[in-house]
Design brief:
By secondary structure, this protein is an alpha/beta fold. It folds into three domains: 378 residues, Glycoside hydrolase, family 3, N-terminal domain (TIM Barrel, Alpha-Beta Barrel), CATH 3.20.20; 215 residues, Rossmann fold, CATH 3.40.50.1700; 114 residues, Immunoglobulin-like (Sandwich), CATH 2.60.40. The protein is built from 22 helices and 27 strands.
């Protein structure tokens, strides 16, 4: 049988296997049940496979399982009921072996897991969330993180992940802002490519390779009002120029799986958009992998979008548009056969989807090496090396927003320091959404980090939470103020929480998204399904900071959160502000490293922070035809895209372009001298923007087209170079093709999107003399 011959191509093996399959076996390959429902854990750590799973297998097979090792309130898998790294690998192997040995053709299961900022299984390393990762401006460091995630996940036998998230954030009130790298399509694309390279490695069948699934295709971060899965109102030019750019770059980098978005664009759900899935993805970009829906998306076609009359209509629309697999739903299982029998889809259309899934299984080596390695899983998952990497990422993702009169760094000789606030010692509040349960002591909080940095014996570091995230109670103020009054400086950790709620009614049982609750125990104010109408601190947090300010002590505010915070009072009155985002399991140590100057902060914002919510949208690449200012304020951000301070200072000088005149397909070299003019070593993010001064369609005032992160010793100067060519100058023209027009371009180089040097580049088409 050719499909069992490892020497043949994946295409040939898939073709042979497809020809041997029954209709039910084909349908089975497009189905993905919830993995955690396929087993029950025994007291000795072994598992018992459920009868439901065995029945599904007997009915035609199971192509994929979602989240077999996922643990969180949705799955109801806890530290007690979940599996250790070694047990997880053994359980996956047992389920895989049963599937292979108890199906007619022995087709292995593709195990898909959530790995947005670490594998969402018990014991795996919890890295900073993507908004923090973007703030590092360091794709090469992120590539190393993705390699670590692939090592941990593949060691247990899982071969696919539903990341990276390539959504471009337009409105940070959206709860999933934390899952994104930022507001700029070029930056998102750079990190997306790093993720593909890090996760998939040199070849998909490698022992440390993981099939990446960029999501959500497309424009999911541009929803109406920042509301999750709401309608998107966008013209085709903007769609191509902004939201599709990161996905195109991901496909060019080798992405072999794509997940569609829940939203509609101009009335057409992404799940059934043949324009997106066929015309663009496959025909224009040459994508030949498979497409998977988001969880529950097919059901939304009947009840939500209401673009399908019933289940048969929904699955037929999806298959015809180019969907190949349904994530964790029952629509394909319940309706594909009847849709085939009624003629709404053809056997060839069904076969095309199955062939794409099978081909990827062969490319991943699942038919030849389908099992994980329990011993290796125990060794690599949560290793010290990976913890160190998590700390390095958190360090580089912290953004210093304010530092009046050199308040930071603090001296380690400080007599006493007060650590106050609801996020000072609440482990889950610094991890973000899509995080597994954590054993006691595995997370370093801000309090832990400061105590460790000072070698505190309990006398120098004073702690009180003061308040909760969402609770208006001021009951804890008195203890917090008493602690702070004894200290020489106050570090107050406030912000948000994406720690999922435990309790009835707090989880959407279909999709796993959290739902808004008003329970007193709920502090969640961010994450999937938690969108907001404002960006201010909730509960009694601002009053707590205001009371601490009255003590007259140096006041350092540390934000731990998943979206920007807009609090003008804090900007005016705090002595220093650190934006730490959700910094992961080593975040407390990283924050302490920055507070005490062991690390010079080098994080830069990847999302503009407005002065007030009414300014939204405030992303930096607005078009020149932006209208007039508001009566109450202008349209400029409080902190612009790319902004971030350092404990040293940098000077930009001698911006040069050679040559200053090029053709549309020519290249120019842009160089600038950057000097560390302070007395500390530090890293600077040198940013290149292009401004097209006149074009046939309206263009953004400026767009990011390059960046370099460099490290300079005091007094050191480095010449930083960028290449400007067609890729940096092109835009999407009236006919949706990418073009470069003759004209004048300003080349802007500086530390952020609002502060830069400017030089002029001229593009002229060479015309032959008559």
């Amino acid at each position: 049988m050719d499909y069992k011959n490892e020497l043949l191509s994946a295409d040939r093996r898939a073709e042979d296997l497809l020809g041997r399959m029954t209709i039910d076996e084909k349908i089975g390959q497009l189905i993905q049940p919830f993995g955690w429902k396929c087993y029950e854990k025994n007291e000795d750590g072994s598992i018992t496979i459920t009868e439901t799973f065995k029945e599904h297998l007997a009915q035609g097979g199971v192509g994929s399982l979602y989240g077999l090792l996922r643990a969180d309130p949705w799955t109801e898998v806890t530290l007690e009921t979940g599996l250790t790294p070694e047990e997880g690998a053994k359980a996956l192997n047992e389920i895989q072996r049963y599937a292979i040995e108890n199906s007619r053709l022995g087709i292995p299961i593709l195990f898909g897991e959530e790995c947005s900022h670490g594998h969402m299984s018990i014991g795996s390393t919890v890295f900073p969330t993507p908004i923090s990762i973007g703030s590092t401006w360091n794709p090469s460091l992120y590539r190393r993180m993705c390699q670590a995630v692939a090592i941990e996940t593949r060691s247990q036998g899982a071969a696919a992940t539903y990341s990276p998230v390539l959504d471009v954030v337009r409105d940070p009130r959206w709860g999933r802002t934390e899952e994104c790298y930022g507001e700029d399509p070029y930056l998102v694309a750079e990190f997306g490519v790093a993720a593909i390279e890090g996760l998939q490695g040199d070849r998909l069948d490698g022992e440390d390779s993981l099939l990446a699934t960029p999501k959500h295709f497309a424009a999911y971060g541009s929803s109406e009002g920042g509301r999750n899965a709401k309608a998107v109102h966008m013209g085709p030019r903007e769609l191509h120029e902004v939201d599709l750019l990161p996905f195109r770059k991901a496909v060019e980098a080798g992405a072999r799986s794509i997940m569609t978005a829940y939203n509609e664009i101009d009335g057409v759900p992404c799940t059934t958009s043949s324009y997106l899935l066929q015309d663009i993805l496959r025909d224009a970009w040459g994508f030949d992998g498979f497409v998977i829906t988001d969880c529950g998306a097919l059901g939304m076609l009947v009840n939500g979008h209401n673009t399908a009359q019933d289940g048969e209509d929904a699955v037929a629309q999806a298959i015809k548009a180019g969907i190949d697999m349904e994530m964790s739903g029952d629509m394909f299982r319940n309706h594909l056969r009847s849709a085939l029998a009624s003629g709404q889809i053809t056997e060839d259309e069904l076969g095309n989807a199955v062939a794409r899934v099978l081909k990827l299984k062969f490319e991943l080596g699942l038919f030849d090496r389908p099992y994980g390695d329990p011993a290796r899983a125990a060794e690599v998952i949560g290793s010290e090396e990976h913890r160190g990497l998590a700390r390095e990422l958190a360090q580089e993702g912290i953004v210093l927003l304010k530092n009046e009169q050199g308040t930071l760094p603090l001296s380690k000789a400080i007599r006493k320091i007060a650590v106050i606030g609801p996020n000072a010692n609440t482990a889950y509040n610094q991890l973000g959404d899509y995080t597994s349960p954590q054993p006691q002591g595995s997370i370093a909080t801000v309090l832990d980090g400061i105590r460790c940095a000072l070698g505190d014996d309990g006398e120098r570091v004073l702690y009180a939470p003061g308040s909760r995230i969402r609770d208006d109670s001021t009951e804890g103020f008195s203890k917090a103020l008493a602690c702070a009054s004894e200290a020489d400086a106050i570090v107050v950790a406030v912000g948000g929480s994406s720690a999922r709620d435990f309790g009835e009614g707090s989880i959407d049982l279909l999709t796993g998204a959290s739902v808004v609750t008003d329970h007193a125990w709920s502090d969640m104010e961010c994450g999937e399904g938690i969108d907001r109408a404002s960006l201010n601190l909730l509960g009694a947090q601002l009053p707590l900071v205001q009371e601490l300010r009255k003590l007259g002590k140096p006041l350092i505010v540390v934000y731990i959160n998943g979206r920007p915070i807009v609090e003008p009072w804090i900007i005016e009155h705090a002595d220093a502000i650190l934006e730490a985002w959700y910094p992961g399991q080593e975040g407390g140590h990283a924050i302490a490293d920055v507070l005490f100057g062991d690390i010079n902060p080098s994080g830069r914002l990847t999302i503009s922070i407005p002065k007030m919510v009414g300014q939204l949208p405030v992303y930096y690449y607005h078009r020149r035809t932006r209208g007039k200012r508001y009566l109450e304020t202008d349209f400029h951000a409080e902190y612009p895209f790319g902004f971030g301070l350092s404990y040293t200072t940098f000077k930009y000088d001698q911006l040069r372009i050679e040559p200053a005149f090029i053709g549309p397909d020519g290249k120019a070299s842009v160089t600038v001298d950057v000097t560390n003019t302070g007395d500390r070593s530090g890293s600077e993010v040198v940013q290149l923007y292009i401004s097209d001064l006149a074009s046939t369609v309206t263009r953004p005032e400026k767009v990011l087209k390059g960046f370099r992160k460099i490290h300079l010793a005091p007094g050191e100067t480095q010449t930083v170079s960028f290449e400007v060519s067609r890729e940096q100058l092109e835009f999407v023209g009236p006919d949706l093709s990418r073009i470069v027009e003759d004209g004048e371009f300003n080349v802007l180089v500086g530390p952020n999107s609002a502060d830069y040097l400017t030089a002029r580049l001229t593009v002229r088409t060479e015309r032959k003399s008559q």
